[in-house]
Structures are given as C-alpha cells and as structure tokens.
Amino acid sequence: MTASAVRLNVTASQFPFISDQEGATVIIPNQDTYYVKPNQFTGETADKNIGIPQFLFLENCMPTSYGMSSIGFDNATPPFPDGSGTVADQLIYLRSRTGRRYLLNFDRASGLVYIYSPEVQKWVFAFTVLNPDSRCYVALVKGRCFFYFRNNDNLFEFGGFDLATSTWQIEWYGGVGGIDDLSGMEGIVGANNYLIFFSTLLTFYTIPPDDYGTIPDFTPSLGETGAASESPSVLKGIMRCCLPTQDGFYIFTSTNIVVAFYSGNIKFPWTYRELEGSAAINSLDSIAVDQDCYPKYAYTTEGLIKLGKTNCTPVHVEAAEFIGNNIYEYFDWPSKEILRRELSQPMRISLAYISGRWLVISYGAQGEIFTHAIIWDEHLKRWGKIQRNHSRALQWYGIPATLPSTLGYTYQQLLDLNWTYQDLLDMGMTYAMLGGLVVEGEPDIALEYKSLGFITLDGVVQVVNFDLGRVSDESVAILGRIQFSRSTRSDIISVWAENLQQNPTTEKTKLAVLSTDDSKNVSKTEYGWPVTEGARGVKQFNFCKSEGLNQYLRFEGDFDLSSIIAVIVRTGNAYG
Q1: pLDDT digits over 389-405, tens only?
Q2: How far are the Cα atoms of 292, 350, 451, 554 from residue 391, in angstroms, in the given order?
Q3: What is the pTM of this model?
Q4: Contacts of 99 (CB under 8 A, 6+ apart)
Q5: Cβ atoms within 10 A of the Cβ of 357, count?
Q6: Strands, DSSP E only, in 270-336?
Q7: How open is the CA angle 220-226-228, to the nearest 5 degrees?
Q8: DSSP string, 165-193
Q9: Other C-beta atoms within 10 Å of 500: how many?
Q10: Of 27-31, 50-54, 225-229, which has the strongest mean pLDDT?
Q11: C-alpha distance from residue 63 to each of 13, 60, 277, 379 (Å)
C-alpha cells in the first residue's frame, strides 16, 4: 500500500451550516472534471467549493488569519442580584456626561430596568417601567443622553452613577412642549444635533439646549430650536423604528426602509429617500447596529441585506437560507454525535455588529433562549460559530473600575514590570479585567477596549477569549468527507497538526478519526495519540486501522490550527 500525504484546507471562507450540505472531497481526482486546487486560500467566496477537504462542522471555533482556533469565555460581570426578579432581555448602552458607557438591561416582561455600574462592578436597580411591553430607545444629542420607552409618558436623561449614594443620576421629564401625549410615541433617535420623536406616521424634531436637565421643547419654531413635525411622503408603511446614521437617520417601516439626509436648511432639515432594494424587517432584533447605534445589516422579508446610503445590498445568501430552513445542528458531547433539531416554527434570530468586525447571528427556537450563533468576520471574510446559551450578543466595553491603577496596562507597562502572559494568568487576569488606558488628565475616563460578548439570562456577560492556554474544552472542529479516490476505500494512518504556539496545551487536545461508508453512519471512532512535538507546536497523531470510503478528522478541546497534513492509504475497492 502506498501512503499519500495531503494538506487539508483550514482557511476556506465557508463551512456548511448543515453538515450534509457539502459533498465528498477527493485526494486523487481522476475523472472529477470540476476539481480545482488553487495555490492558496484567502477567505474569499471563490474558495467555497474547491475540492479540498475542509471543515464540515464547527462549534466554539473562530477563524484566524492562518487557520482556525478554539475559543473560550471569560465572565466580565456578575449575575443580577439575588431575588431581583429580572432576566437579560433588551440591552442598550447609555452615556454619562463624562462620556462613560453604561449597559442598560430592560426586562420587557417585568418592566425592571437594571444598569451595570463599572464603578462598583455590579448591576444596580434603576426603576420599573409601568408599561413593560415596550422597547427602549436611546438618543445622543449635543453630549446629552436621552432614553425613552415606547408608549410611555416619560422622557429620561442619563447623567451617570453617584458613587457616594450608589444611585443613578436620571432626570425624568413627564412631558415636553409641542407633543400633547408622549405615550403615543414609538421612540426617539438623535441625528445632527436634533432630538427626534417618532410615532407610526409622524416625526417631531428639535435642537435641545446644551445644559443637562433642561427640558427639550418641540413647539414649532424657526428660531433656535428649529422644532417642527412632518410625515415623510416616501413611507410605504407605518414607522416601526428609527436609527441614526452618520448624516441623518434610517426609518424602518412595515414595508420598506427610508433614509433621512440632513439638508442643513433649518426650515426643511431632512430630505427623505427610499433605499433601493429595501424590504420590511421581521422584528427589531433583526437589525444589527454598531457601537453608535448605526445600523449595518438587517434580516428582512427578502433576506439578509447590508445597508448603504442609497441602496441595500443582498449578502450572505447561505446564512439567509440556513435561517429559512428552520433546521440546525449541534454537537452532543456524551454520544460524540452531530444531532439535528427541526423546528416547527420559524427560527428565532437576533443580529449584532461587534467592534466594526463581526456580524453575529444568534439563533434558536421560538420562545427559548438562544443556543448558538454564526459569526462572519468582515476582516478575514470567513465564518465561525459558537455554542453558548445566551440572551443576546453584545459589544462589551472593558472599563472595570474608576481608579487608574486598575484600568489596565499597556504593553510598555508590562515590559517595565517584567510581566509575562504566564504572570498575568497566575494573577488571575482575564481579557475582561485588563481594561483600557486612562485618558491623560482625566482619571475617571479610560480608552475603552471592545470585545465580542454574550450575556446569559441571569445577567453574566461572557467575553470571547482567544487565549489558547485558557480556553474551555468545549470546542469541536470536524474536517472531512475525505475520499482517497471516488472508487477506493482508504485509511488515515497519521495526522500532523501544526499551530503557532511555542508551548501548546496539547494535553487538552484530542483528535479522532471517523470512518464511514456513507454520509451518516460512523463505523468506527478512534482517538489518536500524540507522539511528536516540534518547536513550533507540530504534533503527530498516529492511528490504528480505521477503514472506510469517507474519512473524517474531529478535533476536540483546545486547538489553534494553521496546517493539517493527513497520511492516507488506499485499502481496497469501494464498489465490487
């Protein structure tokens, strides 16, 4: 028997969200007329079906510039206080008068509002919304942070946290001039120094005063406030949501999406235009916004789109099809099998856009907590996937405390202290604890670092940790449906896996070879044993006989894959 060594692809742009939606790949192409072997894989969509064995299934894995890595999670916050009676639901960031961000959680079932205080590092109760079946909107205007709950009769302004009394500085405005009934409003948005209320058909706008605590006035005026109201003529349905953009705001209606551009004319400050290719959104959770609440993506009745200034562009058809199929897979650790769940109702989803890089699509069954998320890396142009019970994905801003001494360290400070990464591990440091840098002359403000986070139902924010030495053992990556040739059976006898870690945690890495004669039934599963470790983390796994038409490799635990070379031998004919 002649052994052939083949390098497997660990940098393809996509992997099938349903594992059997990818055909078998072949080492010796023979009569495969459409088989192509490109020189390299850059993460572009052209590399989708290139005939090279690649990932069929991922869980708790994220792409890297050189391959694929397992990930773990660090707790960044404690849970809600015992007996609080609240759960993580709608999350939105508020800004204090000094610019610090505070994460607000609005439990729409109970009406309870909790805000996370980085000063005391815990969730602190704020108030209860009397009409809980609502939604919270925030507007940042002229350094002031307003927030409002749909169909409620109060406008709020956020000032910050009073450390002396451990209470929130929040102004309540029971009414505003020019709007007779605040409880008839849908929400607010801030754009170009205007504070804007919107109902289902009308917008009310004004330029509020600069001073904190002064009530905005929406009484029509062509003077300093420029207040007025109007009904945009290009609306094709009722307004459901307004969100800011760099030079105006978007209006999401029950039928289409409209953009309002700032004209600079105080009499007519807004010009409205329908976005070409827009459609209705299924829910407000189907809009992915960035750190400034600017919408970037939306899942609409016509699929997943990317929002532009003049038009909408369809993107990621594979993700839209996956959502519409109402089927998803998960890895069952006790049986070591990929199991499938078929939903009787449309898949529940929520979108988030994190750190100007990751589009996160959380999904699960209707009426249940989200269990998984697929993640598109805009920089690498590749997909990853996590398995984590969570209420929402969010961008986490890592400012854990007020004192400069606990706000974090620069690389230069680590060098001056002669600290290594191992020293940080020994001290119990996490990504969530390292924090930001102090702004010079402003000890209460720090430069925020941004992390990809998920919040559990009980309020624990879990930040994704890419550190190989500290990740969990709940990651799995399966490569395969590998065939030696279309007409032969084969056996993988050895695998060389390479990562870029000088001292990889190989005792936490397991590799199994699975052999099948069809796409479903595994005839034998065998774990290999590592026998060689090189200076750059090259590890060899040897196997006993595991024969079949299709071969699979399943990595479990901790891994940081940059290169995989499989040694495969022909063992006989597949047919006859």
Answers
A1: 999 999 998 654 333 34
A2: 21, 9, 17, 29
A3: 0.87
A4: 445
A5: 14
A6: 270-274, 287-289, 295-300, 303-307, 312-314, 327-332
A7: 40
A8: TTEEEEEEES-BBTBS-GGG--EEEEETT
A9: 16
A10: 225-229
A11: 9, 10, 31, 10
* 240 C-beta neighbours (distance < 10 Å), count: 20
**Greatest alpha-carbon span in the chain:** 89
pLDDT in tens, 5-30: 888 888 888 888 998 877 777 777 76
Instruction: Give the bridge partners for 373, in sequence order.
Output: 362, 386
Calpha distance 433→429 (Å, rounded): 6
The pLDDT tens digits for 148-201 are 999 999 999 999 998 888 899 999 998 899 998 899 999 999 999 999 999 999
For 422-448, what is each residue's pLDDT tens digit? 666 666 555 445 554 444 545 444 456
Model pLDDT, residue 297 = 94
> 109-113, 241-245, 486-490: lowest mean pLDDT where?
486-490
223: its two tokens: 């003077």
Query: What mean pLDDT do residues 370-374 have?
Result: 97
Angle at 454 between CA 451 and CA 455, to 5 degrees: 125
Q: Concatenate the DSSP letters of all residues of 470-510 into one string.
A: G--S--EEEEEEEESSTTEEEEEEEEEEE-S-SS--GGGEE
CB-based contact 351:290 (threshold 8 Å):
no
Give the torsion through C-alpha atoms of 274, 276, 282, 287, to 10 deg.
-90
Q: What is the structure's pLDDT at 14?
A: 82
| DSSP output for 80-131 | SPTT------EEEEEE-TTS-EEEEEE-TTT-EEEEEETTTTEEEEEEE-SS
- Tell me the residue type at 115: I
Read off the tokens for 479.
């490569």
Spatial separation of the C-alpha atoms in residues 386 and 71, rounded to whole Å: 8
